[in-house]
Amino acid sequence: MKYLRMMLVLLTVVLLGNTIVLADVPKPVIPKGNAEECVLPKEEMRVDHMNYILHQRDETMHRGIRTKKFSLKGCIDCHTVKDDAGKIVSYKDKKHFCNSCHTYAAVNIDCFECHASTPTAKGTISSTGGKK
Amino acid sequence: MNKINYQEIEGSSSGFIALLGILGIFVLAGLGATYYMEHNGHYVTGMNNQIVWGLPHVFAVFLIVAASGALNVASIGTVFGKTLYKPLGRLSSLLAIALLAGGLAVLLLDLGRPDRLIVAMTYYNFKSIFAWNIILYSGFFGITIVYVWMMMEKRMNKYYRPAGMAAFIWRLILTTGTGSIFGFLVARSAYDAAIMAPMFIIMSFSFGLAIFLLVLMLGYNWTNRPLGDAIIYRLKNLLGVFVAAVMYFVLVFHLTNLYETEHHGVERFILAGNTIHTTLFWVVQIIIGSIVPLIILYSKLGRSRMWVGMASLFIIIGGIAQMYVIIIGGQAYPLNIFPGMEVLSSSFGDAAAYHAYSPSLAETVLGVSGIAIALLIVVLGVRVLKFMPDSLADKDVDPHQKA
Amino acid sequence: MSKPGSETSKISRRKFLGTGITVAGMSVAPGVSLINVAEARPLDQPVSSKQRWGILVDANKCSKGCTSCVDACFTENGLNRGDEQHSRPGQKAQWIRKIDLRDKATGHEVSLPLFCQHCEHPPCTDVCPTGASFKRKDGLVLVDKHICIGCRYCMMACPYKARSFIHEELTHQFEYAPRGKGTVEGCTLCVHRVDQGRNPACVDACNAAGHKAMYFGDLKDSNSEVSKQLKMHSSKAIRADLELNPGIRYRGI
To answer: What is the ipTM score, two decimals?
Structure first.
């Protein structure tokens, strides 16, 4: 799948003339995360984040392993982007950390049909320990 | 016996274009309905958490069952060596492929996540009958295409018998798989019966042949090709046998349930209730779909092609009703979660006498579009490839010659 | 107990110590009871079949008309956050429901909560074509929504009607309880809490309401409260005739 996609992109670039295409589409604005640095060097994350997340997905879902390093929840908690009103934006917003790049790369992701794309507010029952 | 000459149909008449247009509109409408359902979610359908499979599944399962039955005509020629049926083999195979494609399309387009088709192809749970069926259906396409190729390609003619045999065995397994989708459901009192698998096989014989007869007669009529009485006569007699056999299986199925006290509730609901299922069962499935066709086929009326066509149509309508009663009726009767107890209240419908279902336009259109997809494939198929003999007149098919 | 048995208990004691430290380091908060912490696993350890989670529901203590468990479940898992605006009542997700019953022969009435029974031999996992319905090693029956294609065959197969299909787009999911359009879902026994060594929300709510009708714990640990209670008094599995050996058992039905 990945190679197919890469080949398609390459083909498009070649066919349309690379300079024109690359010049016309604005580069994505990639917001910084809230922490000093990411769990891995950003070069590595940019190339391989999907593989880490996919691996963690199966580990958590099927084996109950809940380490935080590569959890989607970790990404969402750290890479928050606020809109003009100061509210954390969801994936539907173009400014959302994931969305900004994925729109540019034209890669559709299927995470946020089910997963929350913003951190769950502190104070909900599960983060405080069950008693209401 | 003359050599059978196969020929593409002539595809420039206005009738042909009109037929394509009508079928195309139905297919497009089905795709539109899919988009509407998938974009909004299934809340726009009549389905819910009680009736989880609705009208699309009725049509889909009907078409899939009929598909394997449509191949029977070819099998009778190849496997059982009946000369009369041999010229019909190609069309029979095409119809089988087309019906399966139509049924599967509807089934897939109704999924909650049809965009994850690739997941269904790459993740297999080998204990699931659905997973078996994915393999069985793909295999059916493959084997039948090879079978058709061997019938069409002179150099391959010598191998077509083993291919036909393989296709015949495969289709029996396939329908067993389809019937077992329901037969292996322990939870529901309307299903959970091993007889489901053989009953589905005999249903496939009946529905598939009815559709084949109709397609054959209309196809030869519209293309002005000769079609002799010998073939019609044979096929309609065979169809009658199949219809009677389906009735026998239905009878045994219900008799078994009527004998067992634990199934009295569901039998009362289907056979003597006051819902649509009772009407569909008695009026549409039994009277219109079985008894009337039997009378037509075996009386003087059976000599008239128009009446044979009507009987076939009735059998198809009765078949769809039968699927409706099996699939929807089986879910409409509430699950007996607490045997011996009466449910006084529940927020999830457990206390209901039955679960109502009213299909929306979208899911109805999606279901019907499955038939259109199948017919469109047939029409295009006979247009571009040599599926139809240019004559099926009695003198050309000579039934009296030994195979 | 035999020797291998004591060996395992030693290991689990060591594990317990490690667990205690990890958990104490990160998440002991007011409201987490110490008994539960003992059952938590380190974050990097996989679940094992040495445990099997289950609940005993004492229907004698369950109060007719009380929906604390249902409310807590909906709140915990985000089922009542304003999503499913378009879905009709019969289309909305319900992971747990209260059912009032009357014995047809005797007239005895009883009220109980019904939810996924977390069977040892779940029919839903048998029929699922992709393996999205699966049983975790510790007995929890879950839906891997990443590979669920929304065929609803599991809903046809479940003898308890414990599953719901999501009929429209959702936008208010909690981080720890992902759910979405076109997939099937059901009670997870609050897997996100269980993995932290806490009770499912319904159990805590029942306790908080003062009914104490639900006992949660490890069915394979003979010292757990739920095992002791099960051993002490008779209990029943719903549809025991199907031999699915559910992890949820009922007293008083």
So the answer is: 0.92
